[in-house]
């Protein structure tokens, strides 16, 4: 990942009580590659409090990025923010360290905050599996009952099991009608 602008801290110039850094990295820092579901619309915005504690550099703050997403249920595009409100990093500092580069840690934290399964809203109904109509905006006339082919193998197995269970229940019922107690086979 080649990028010109890095988020670096000049340790020698850092105030003893700590400093707040605010800004935005270039959009290229995210380097998400070709993604059909997520497109960054901004660089990573950050508000970080950075403090040197003896030989440790402590970084705490908030990160966010504005995204355009494609809903995995209905295919609609929508905008949202991925936010990490609890960003915390700690670095061991040696006397040779003049600068600390935070770019990779910030990038990794915001990637973990990205939605893995983006949906336009929780109540999204998705698309009709038969005709492809967006069920959020229109109703289709398809008979959707029992047409979910993803479950066909299990439905066939269920159909085979139901007659056997019904036969077992009928045998028990016949035994009760004749005044016999149902017998339980011991193993």
Describe the protein in words.
- By secondary structure, the protein is α+β, with helices and mostly antiparallel strands.
- The chain has two domains: 106 residues, no CATH class; 31 residues.
- 20% of the residues lie in helices and 29% in strands.
- The protein is built from two helices and seven strands.
- Strands 2, 3, 4, 5 and 6 form a five-stranded antiparallel sheet that branches. A two-stranded antiparallel sheet has the order 1-7.
- The radius of gyration is 30 Å and the shape is elongated.
- 13% of the residues are buried.
Q: How do the strands and helices of this protein lay out in sequence?
A:
Elements: E1 8-10, E2 19-24, E3 38-40, E4 45-53, E5 56-70, E6 77-92, E7 99-101, H1 103-113, H2 152-177
Antiparallel strand pairs: 1-7, 2-4, 3-5, 4-5, 5-6
Comma- or semicolon-separated keywords:
20% helix, alpha+beta, 187 residues, elongated, two-stranded antiparallel ribbon
